[in-house]
Backbone:
């Protein structure tokens, strides 16, 4: 059984996928398999579900330290914004990340990456944004790139220098952008470390017009953009991102119908991050019905980060997307495959179709809804990455 075209999921019962040189050469009903493929080495999946390898399209997987202490503070009554304004929050992770070497960052990220890989993830996006000085931003991105050499997974890197204003630039966001963030972006790009550029548009971070300076620089460098927008309040980041034809706009709890329309027009993916909503105990859910109504593709991701989403399970994000936001299991699966690929600007993966990368996940389930339905259960049988088998 595999994901194909003929039912809502596109499931093809009794399917065959032919793989050659790391790419999908043919897919369809086993009975229709062209004869020249029949002499090839075969793997019998014994009726298991085959999906595209899963894609986690929004993570902050590389960082120093952890924030278990803040978790405890919040449980004792402090809000996320209060923790941030008291010099905690992102700033405490910035201090720990600056103190870490590239090797430290790699070794602390590996167990998190391995947790994702164990759930059939074959592509992971990783952002910078906990260095907030030139050298540490570059070190984070180098560490992210290295992770892709250490494990059978594609890593895409996103520059997130506009994540927060570092303590040494407190109250001087503009100066931080021109003196540190933009030069760091240019240097990271010159070193081939940047696949996309992101920012955090929020009252505790950067305004829409400040973010646009970063987007202008990205555009000069020919880099695609994405944005953390309307997570805690409505700041107008989505409208800005749409004018820049952003690959994705992420979080979106406070997005409006006008935002959804602008995203649909721009072709931007809505990246839904239920782990942060859950952790922060937000009450305003993103307007899933408006994204549906206006045909905005929705992706789901872990947002793995030490503060607002210490989550390394994309299956859990699927479950939360369904249970907290009333997404359907079908939307959840598209959200971690085809739409997640689109949120990263990757056209060579996210579906099972000839010519695409043979990144596949094999599941011990009878129906696709099971991937979203269970809580804390991992039904992965095996992963195939670029045509090569990787056991669980
Ligand atoms: N939005 C978030 O939820 C995270 N970053 C962002 O832009 C929070 C990151 C953190 O608290 O460390
Ligand atoms: Fe994030």
Residues:
């Amino acid at each position: 059984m595999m994901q194909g075209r003929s039912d809502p999921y596109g499931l093809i019962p009794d399917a065959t996928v032919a793989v050659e040189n790391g790419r999908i050469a043919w897919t369809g009903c086993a009975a229709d398999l062209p004869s020249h493929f029949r002499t090839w080495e075969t793997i019998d999946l014994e009726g298991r579900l085959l999906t595209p390898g899963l894609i986690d399209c929004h993570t902050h997987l590389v960082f120093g330290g952890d924030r278990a202490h803040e978790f405890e503070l919040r449980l004792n009554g402090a809000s996320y914004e209060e923790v941030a304004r008291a010099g905690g929050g992102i700033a405490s992770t910035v201090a720990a990340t600056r103190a870490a070497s590239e090797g430290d960052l790699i070794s602390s990220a590996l167990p998190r990456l391995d947790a994702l890989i164990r759930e059939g993830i074959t592509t992971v996006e990783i952002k910078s944004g906990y260095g907030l000085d030139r050298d540490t931003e570059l070190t984070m991105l180098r560490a992210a790139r290295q992770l892709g050499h250490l494990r059978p997974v594609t890593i895409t890197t996103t520059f997130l220098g506009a994540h927060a204003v570092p303590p040494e630039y407190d109250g001087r966001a503009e100066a931080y952008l021109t003196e540190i963030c933009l030069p760091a972006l240019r240097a990271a790009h010159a070193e081939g470390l940047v696949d996309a550029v992101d920012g955090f548009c929020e009252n505790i971070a950067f305004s829409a017009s400040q973010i646009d300076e970063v987007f202008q620089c990205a555009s000069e460098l020919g880099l695609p953009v994405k944005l953390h927008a309307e997570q805690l309040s409505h700041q107008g980041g989505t409208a800005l991102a749409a004018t820049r034809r952003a690959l994705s706009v992420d979080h979106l709890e406070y997005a409006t119908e006008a935002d959804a329309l602008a995203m649909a027009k721009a072709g931007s993916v809505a990246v839904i991050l239920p782990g942060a909503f859950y952790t922060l105990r937000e009450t305003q859910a993103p307007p899933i019905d408006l994204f549906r109504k206006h045909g905005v593709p929705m992706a789901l991701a872990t947002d793995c980060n030490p503060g607002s989403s210490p989550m390394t399970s994309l299956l859990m994000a699927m479950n939360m997307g369904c249970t907290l936001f009333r997404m359907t299991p079908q939307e959840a699966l598209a959200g971690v495959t085809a739409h997640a690929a689109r949120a990263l600007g990757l056209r060579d993966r996210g579906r099972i179709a000839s010519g695409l990368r043979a990144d596949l996940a094999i599941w011990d389930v009878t129906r696709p809804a099971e991937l979203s339905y269970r809580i804390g259960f991992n039904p992965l049988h095996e992963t195939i990455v670029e045509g090569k088998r990787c056991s669980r």
In short: The two ends are 20 Å apart (CA to CA). Residues 89-90, 93, 163, 200, 228, 231, 276, 305-308 surround DI6 (ligand 1) (CB under 6 Å).
